[in-house]
Write a structure and sequence with these properties.
Residues 2-39 form the PEP-utilising enzyme C-terminal domain. This is PEP-utilising enzyme C-terminal domain-containing protein. It comes from Phycicoccus elongatus Lp2. The structure is a single chain. This protein is mainly α. The protein has one domain (2-76). 58% of the residues lie in helices and 5% in strands. It has five helices and two strands. The protein has helices at 11-19, 32-40, 44-56, 60-70, 73-76; strands at 2-3, 24-25. Strands 1-2 form a two-stranded parallel sheet.
């Protein structure tokens, strides 16, 4: 399964999508370095944990805040 559009270019959302089983992310070329960096910091198991964190939230805003709280510190500093 793949995702195309701006969603795949968001580094935090990319972690969630990969954790949900998405295998292909399409994005603007300018977004590739940051998404690559985000993914390089997290294993598949960690992405699955990030996805579970997002799914447990009641609202989209809470999901984003929760995801920001569990990602690698180096990524959190950039987003």
């Amino acid at each position: 399964m793949g995702v195309c559009g701006e969603a795949g270019g968001d580094p935090l959302l990319a972690l969630v999508l990969v954790g949900l089983g998405v295998q292909s992310l399409s994005m603007a070329p300018s977004k590739v370095p940051m998404v690559r960096f985000a993914l390089s910091l997290h294993s598949l198991a960690e992405c699955q944990g990030v996805a579970a964190t997002a799914l447990a939230a009641r609202t989209a805003r809470e999901a984003m805040q929760a995801v920001q709280g569990v990602v690698h510190d180096d990524l959190r500093a950039l987003v």
